[in-house]
Amino acid sequence: MPASTLFVKGCGLRASLYVVKNGRPAPIRQYRQFACHLEARWAAFHFRLSSGGQSKTPPIPLIMAQKKTDYLKQILNAKVYDVARETPLEPARSLSARINNTVLLKREDMQPVFSFKLRGAYNKMAHLDAAQLKRGVICASAGNHAQGVALGANKLQTTAVIVMPVTTPQLKIDAVKRFGGRHVEIVLHGESYSDAYQHALTLEQKKGLTFVHPFDDPLVIAGQGTVAMEILRQHPGPIHAIFVAIGGGGLISGVAAYVKALRPEIKIIGVQMCDSDAMIRSVESGKRVQLDDVGLFADGTAVKYVGSETFRLCKQYVDDYVRVDTDAACAAIKDVFQDTRTVMEPSGALAIAGAKAYAAKHKLKGETLVAIACGANMNFDRLRFVAERAEIGEQREAVLAVSLPEARGSFRKFCELLGPRNITEFNYRIADAKEAHLFVGVQTSKADEGDKIAANFKRHGFKTLNLTNDELAKLHLRHLVGGHSPLAKNELLYRFEFPERPGALMRFLSSMNPNWNISLFHYRNQGADYGRILVGIQVPPNEKKAFKEFLQALGYRYWDESNNPAYKLFLG
Ligand SMILES: Cc1ncc(COP(=O)(O)O)c(C=O)c1O
């Protein structure tokens, strides 16, 4: 390996730097150029710093440089390609056209385990010595890391104990068994990644195994950083920003450390779900924040407490953050599907959702945005929920309640007013002799189109409510239209939510054991983040106080929908 010598001429602020390449000194004019040079060449050159050409102070600045460039070195030396492949970086053509920027997808869903996770896991495991490999490894994972560890254990012929939360999708459990074969032992424990993690630490001690952390380990971070190495090689042209989903922060740390060393002008933007935003909250408050709960819809990124090293690296390198909601994640899954015919898992689509939100917020036009499509381990039974919410996330569906006079010709007029629009849903029930109430879903192309359609109906004499942003209408009433009952006296209507997991509905039902009569109950399992239930309860006016106390004691999130106009129209 050729030696490259760095000279400092002069002293203090007036010092000039020269690098000697092929025997000839070349001046380095700016600090950034100097830093980049050190970092860029670290793996390829040995640097020796000297003063004015005389080697008086050789090693001191090198220590500084080494600390700074450590990740670059580790990423360049990472062992990932025994198991991982270099994935394509390809344009998302129709999404790009829709948002007026070039969106490039880094297709990490095309890894053998359908996510980037095997890079970090394998790099860690491949650096273990023979004795450690003989004893075996342990990890805690919500699924994708586990698959990487399982594949690594198989490849390196070691054993892996894999602790997964009980909420882990079956698809991921089966995949771990398939990739690891006889080399893995699966332990299901706890409801979130953090619960599984604590249990894994106990087992690690007990069994003398090596812990393979899913994100907070320099070797894991370096393995994930190889994603960035490929991106910069695959697209040497200008890149405005790279969008990266964050769980514990391993992927973004590796990507950011590499990119900021070589192309510091490229922005690194972290993306989290609104209900799993531990990294954003931690960065905002300057210290690591532990979340009490995390949303489970994007299970790959459902992390309550980020790593200390990943937190440090994010603070240092990440330029900005975006939070996205469930509907936006679903819309992004649809975007990727339209361009690639591949279904991302929710965490795998987060970066795309973040890129869309960021481009809209900053009014970007004509820029190149890279989004890491980082995983496709999607449980099939979630697709119905995703498909339903994607339209709303994309603001491509308006939901309206329209009252029609029970008169000849009024239905025809209603259809004429709708025009050639696609109807996504249509529910109808005669409410009384004078009026019929329609619940109608319409495909739209713009965010405010629902308001315009509603205004048009009203102009033509039809009473209309725009329910596009009404959770009660979208989740429940669309399936319950026509449920007026003269018997439901003193009915109160409540919506409840509980984290969806096996047995949760039964637990909810057994806790709903009040003295009041239940007059309505609607639940639909949508393979979603939360179980959503609508309950009508008949409570005499003088018992309302006791009822409120009962609600408080239940311990579920709830909303009083008794005065919701859509309820009054269709059920009350
Ligand atoms: C699909 C997917 N995306 C993103 C992440 C988040 O990665 P990290 O924990 O390194 O931030 C994970 C973690 O498992 C994942 O599985």
Brief sketch in words of this structure:
This protein is an alpha/beta fold and 572 residues long. 40% of the residues lie in helices and 23% in strands. The termini are far apart.
CATH fold-level assignment of the largest domain:
Rossmann fold
Regions with pLDDT < 50 over 5+ consecutive residues? 1-25, 28-69
Instruction: Report the top-level CATH class of the largest domain.
Output: Alpha Beta
Which molecules are bound besides the chains?
pyridoxal-5'-phosphate
Can you describe what's shown?
With 572 residues, the chain is α/β, with parallel strands linked by helices. It has 5 domains: 3-76, 2-Layer Sandwich (Nucleotidyltransferase, domain 5), CATH 3.30.420; 89-110 and 219-391, Rossmann fold, CATH 3.40.50.1100; 118-213, Rossmann fold, CATH 3.40.50.1100; 395-469, 2-Layer Sandwich (Alpha-Beta Plaits); 478-570, Biosynthetic Threonine Deaminase, domain 3 (3-Layer(aba) Sandwich), CATH 3.40.1020.10. It has 21 helices and 22 strands. The strands form 5 sheets. The protein has a 6-stranded mixed β-sheet, with helices on both faces. Strands 3-2-1-4 form a 4-stranded mixed β-sheet. Helix 7 (170-180) links the parallel strand 8 and strand 9. Helix 10 packs parallel to helix 12. The protein is globular and about 80 Å long. Residues 1-25 and 28-69 have low confidence and may be disordered. It binds pyridoxal-5'-phosphate.
Protein topology:
Elements (H helix, E strand, L loop, with lengths): L2 E7 L6 E6 L2 E5 L2 H11 L4 E6 L8 H17 L12 E3 L1 H7 L2 E6 L10 H9 L3 H6 L1 E4 L3 H13 L3 E5 L5 H11 L3 E5 L4 H15 L2 E2 L6 H17 L6 E5 L4 H13 L4 E7 L4 H8 L22 H10 L2 E5 L1 H15 L5 H16 L6 E6 L9 H11 L3 E9 L4 H9 L4 E8 L4 E9 L5 H11 L3 E4 L4 H5 L15 E9 L4 H8 L5 E7 L6 E9 L5 H11 L2 E4 L4 H6 L2
Helix pairs in contact: 1-2, 2-9, 2-10, 4-6, 4-9, 6-7, 9-10, 10-12, 13-14, 13-15
